Structure prediction request, 254 residues.
Amino acid sequence: MRYLTDRKKAMGRGPAHSGTERHWFMSVTAVALAFMVPVWLYIFGTTLGQGRDVVLETFARPFPAILTGLVLFVGMRHFAMGARNMFEDYSGGATRKSLIMAANALSYAVTATGLFALAKIAL
Amino acid sequence: MAPPNPVNRPLSPHLQIYRPQMTSISSILTRITGNGLAVAVVLMVWWLLAAATSDAYFEVANRVATSWFGDIVFTGSLWAVWYHYLAGLRHLYYDAGHGLEIKTAERLGWACVIGSVVLTVLTLLIIRIGV
Prediction:
């Protein structure tokens, strides 16, 4: 008889060898975004189309600045993982690897650019 | 030892085999809207960077963001974000072990489609008219 718990036997199994970690990551970020996105839509929607002075004034305030930063960071990580899932479903080999790297690069570049812009406006 | 012979297996979800159904179409739409949202995010961040930089740069980015092209991207993405939102909630509901009967699953698919249109119109009304 092997003294292994059911959980221990299941660990490291499955094609990804990381269990349900990615699925759980998507659930966590999805719930976070579900709370933030409706409020953010209102802030961005009412600011888009205004003059530069109003835009600067809006994103210099703590709440819009912090919320926009959070939506960008969490949203782009959620996107990178979702895109990775898509590429793993529809492509293989070097194409798959390149596309996953590109999605990650885009996601981090967009996040960094957005955070830089927010910092410049708010500080 | 002979080199491994790569087998050209079909990739999931075998789109060319299955007849389109509400459950599959609503799932595929979730993926399309989620990934498509990247376009609007890039445009939004560019617009924000321009606002942070200078009057002249903001002039350029704002003209693009509020042009017919910007309107199409942002209005389309507003629907996309609401669709993805509702479909995501549905996913969490499925994960909890609910709504998996075929009838219910199909009804939830329609709820996502109709609900996303309603929420898009409502958001536009609130933002544009300031209800």
Q: What stands out?
A: The two ends of chain B are 73 Å apart (CA to CA). DSSP finds four helices and no strands in chain B. The interface with chain A takes residues 11-13, 31, 34-35, 37-38, 41-42, 44-49, 51-53, 55, 58, 62, 65-66, 74, 78, 81, 85, 88-89, 91-92, 95, 123, 126-127, 130 of chain B (CB under 8 Å).
